């Protein structure tokens, strides 16, 4: 037996109480890990921003369209080295619940500007050359089991075709792997193939993606692009890609604040529950602590054993909570619901695990502090008089 | 097999403050207990028997005077020094056994050995021997609630002797037992004194129990009166 064995014996003293406390800690860390995974994936949903990329959208808001003719005019602005464009497709696969983060893009320029998509050159060329191509992220390909050369129906819940349908049959010609930080949860179809078939709003686009020669030229290019279309029917608002992504994340609400609020409330509640229960448990064990002191255990050593018990309690409950969160996140990832598609790769990151373990240790130390102090103060003579 | 003084109390005073009042338990207590002695301390309630035992075990400090153990004063040791001294030199036996309810007999007996540098293997060997000495070798896996009162007290005795202390302090060790079991426990203490040379100080109210000691000390009004048994 060791001090560790004494900690375990302390926890085993009242099994039901220990199980209930473990459950409380389990719930707290389950909530924390799942919410933190959502926050982390949302922050990464847009992928890393490039310093010399800009996005032009309709000044009213980015759901309003711009004429495709703007693209060539933007390309003429000094300091612009490359231009592409995209249109929100609002896609799904077979059933509406199989939502796809889908865009219609100009294949060549788009994959040139967004080189971090990391596409095999031969596949990229096939995507560019094929009229009815689709470029698919690895996550989506794995989720639906799509392979190169496979024909799939991609439907839109926004756009109608001139023939009355809403499905664009496409062939998987490229699968992009990302570069580690880039999410692979989106798909792209050629704009031309999409635009020639749609029933309305033809020759309009959602965003213009601009690459500048240098980040130092960004301000100048932004001013000149927006000046080009001032007082037109569709004025532009050009921002850096970083600002555009930040605005997108802000649209989802302040998830960080929600996580802080929910987990903070859960933690304070559990702090009170565990702290109070442990203080009660130590009170019950006053006689046993007096015996240990009589045998020669020092007060600091007894305090360490008590704190060890609470830290162990927090670690066991917390790690089970983390494991359950991992299961839920994995399950959520495979479900691919309409909600989850807006998130990047949903996963419990090493940072979340490290923070959670730190919080577990902190929870154990805080909840054990008062009981440990009480245990240190147990007076042997007084305690024996009470037995 | 008594020898040189193991314990010497010289001019020991013990006073308690209760509100504005100061209660004096001992004013000038003197006592010598040779190594290998078996002393029964008797006396009326409130005479200071348990206070004496607590001071001998380093759980309480005298207000004045000195307590020497094997020639060294213990009253000035710090709390942590006293803890280490107790772990090495004193075994305690209580009236209500005071075993850890969640631990088996083996674990209870092993507890004082966690304060030593013995290897797990040596600890296991010592625990086994201690349980065999008290006749509970076959009950090592039982928890206190699975044992009778007499068996629990035997486990407590095994715990008291497992670290091989020189001094055993017993506070009413048979106070919670029937006569037959009490006799077994007292015979066991005699055996520990006689065969293993343990010095024993036993506080008891029971004159029959006191007869098992080599000598009886009657404590009254803070002073000793000695009777040989």
Q: Biggest sheet of chain A, strands in spatial order?
A: 4-5-9-6-8-7
Task: Name the strands of the widest sheet of chain B in spatial order.
Answer: 6-7-8-3-9-10
Tell me the Rg of chain B in angstroms: 17 Å
Which chain pair shows the most residues in contact?
A-B, 26 and 27 residues
What topology emerges from the helices and strands here?
The complex is a heterodimer of chains A (387) and B (229).
Chain A: H1 3-11, H2 15-43, E1 53-58, E2 66-67, H3 70-75, E3 80-88, E4 91-93, E5 99-105, H4 107-113, H5 121-129, E6 133-137, H6 138-144, E7 151-156, E8 167-176, E9 186-190, H7 191-197, E10 204-205, E11 207-212, H8 218-228, E12 236-240, H9 241-251, H10 255-284, H11 286-295, H12 299-335, H13 350-376, H14 380-386
Parallel strand pairs in A: 5-9, 6-8
Antiparallel strand pairs in A: 1-11, 1-12, 2-10, 3-5, 3-11, 4-5, 4-7, 6-9, 7-8
Helix pairs in contact in A: 1-12, 2-10, 2-12, 2-13, 10-13, 11-14, 12-13
Chain B: E1 5-18, E2 21-34, E3 38-42, H1 49-56, E4 64-69, E5 72-73, H2 79-89, E6 90-93, H3 105-110, H4 120-133, H5 149-161, E7 167-171, H6 179-196, E8 199-203, H7 207-210, E9 215-220, E10 223-228
Helix pairs in contact in B: 4-5, 5-6
């Amino acid at each position: 037996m060791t001090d560790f064995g004494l900690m375990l014996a302390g926890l085993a003293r009242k099994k039901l109480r220990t199980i209930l406390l473990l459950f409380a800690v389990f719930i707290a860390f389950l909530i924390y890990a799942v919410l933190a995974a959502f926050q982390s994936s949302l922050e990464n949903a847009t992928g890393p921003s490039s310093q010399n990329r800009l996005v032009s959208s309709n000044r009213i808001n980015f759901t309003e369209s711009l004429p495709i003719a703007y693209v060539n005019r933007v390309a003429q602005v000094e300091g612009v080295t490359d231009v592409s464009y995209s249109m929100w497709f609002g896609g799904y696969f077979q059933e509406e619940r199989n939502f796809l983060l889908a865009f219609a893009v100009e294949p060549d320029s788009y994959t040139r500007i967004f080189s971090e998509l990391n596409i095999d050159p031969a596949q990229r060329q096939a995507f560019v050359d094929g009229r009815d191509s689709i470029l698919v992220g690895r996550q989506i390909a794995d989720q639906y089991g799509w392979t190169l050369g496979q024909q799939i129906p991609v439907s839109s819940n926004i756009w109608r075709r001139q023939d009355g349908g809403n499905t664009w049959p496409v062939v998987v010609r490229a699968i992009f792997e990302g570069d580690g930080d880039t999410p692979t949860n989106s798909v792209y179809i050629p704009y031309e193939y999409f635009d020639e078939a749609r029933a309305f709003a033809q020759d309009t686009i959602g965003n213009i993606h601009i690459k500048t020669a240098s980040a130092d030229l960004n301000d100048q290019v932004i001013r000149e692009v927006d000046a080009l279309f001032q007082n037109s029917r569709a004025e532009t608002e050009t921002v850096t890609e970083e600002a555009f992504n930040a605005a997108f994340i802000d649209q989802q609400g302040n998830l960080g604040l929600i996580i802080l609020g929910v987990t903070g409330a859960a933690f304070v509640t559990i702090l009170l529950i565990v702290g109070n229960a442990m203080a009660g448990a130590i009170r019950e064990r006053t006689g046993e602590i007096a015996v240990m002191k009589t045998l020669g255990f020092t007060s600091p050593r007894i305090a360490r054993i008590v704190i060890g018990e609470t830290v162990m309690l927090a670690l066991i409950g917390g790690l089970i909570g983390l494991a359950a969160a991992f299961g839920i996140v994995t399950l959520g990832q495979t479900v691919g619901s309409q909600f989850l598609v807006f998130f990047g790769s949903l996963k419990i990151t090493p940072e979340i695990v490290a923070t959670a373990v730190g919080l577990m240790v902190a929870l154990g130390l805080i909840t054990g502090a008062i009981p440990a102090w009480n245990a240190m103060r147990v007076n042997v003579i007084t305690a024996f008089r009470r037995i | 097999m008594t020898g040189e003084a193991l314990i010497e109390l010289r001019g020991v005073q013990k006073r308690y403050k209760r509100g504005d009042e100061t209660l004096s338990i001992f004013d000038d207590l003197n006592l010598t207990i040779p190594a290998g002695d078996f002393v029964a301390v008797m006396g009326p309630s409130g005479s200071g028997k348990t206070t004496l035992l607590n001071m001998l075990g380093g759980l309480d400090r005298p207000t004045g005077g000195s307590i020497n153990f094997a020639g060294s004063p213990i009253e000035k040791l710090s709390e942590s020094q006293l803890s280490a001294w107790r772990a090495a030199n004193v075994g305690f036996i209580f009236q209500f056994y005071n075993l850890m309810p969640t631990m088996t007999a083996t674990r209870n007996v092993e507890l004082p050995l966690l304060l030593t540098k013995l290897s797990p293997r040596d600890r296991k060997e010592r625990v086994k021997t201690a349980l065999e000495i008290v006749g509970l070798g076959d009950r090592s896996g039982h928890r206190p609630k699975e044992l009778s009162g007499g068996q629990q007290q035997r486990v407590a005795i095994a715990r008291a002797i497992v670290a091989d202390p020189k001094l055993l302090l017993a506070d009413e060790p048979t106070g919670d037992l029937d006569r037959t079991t009490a006799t077994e426990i007292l015979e066991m203490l005699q055996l520990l004194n006689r065969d293993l040379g343990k010095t024993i100080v036993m506080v008891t109210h029971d004159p029959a129990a006191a007869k098992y000691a080599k000598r009886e000390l009657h404590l009254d009004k803070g002073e000793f009166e000695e009777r040989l048994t």
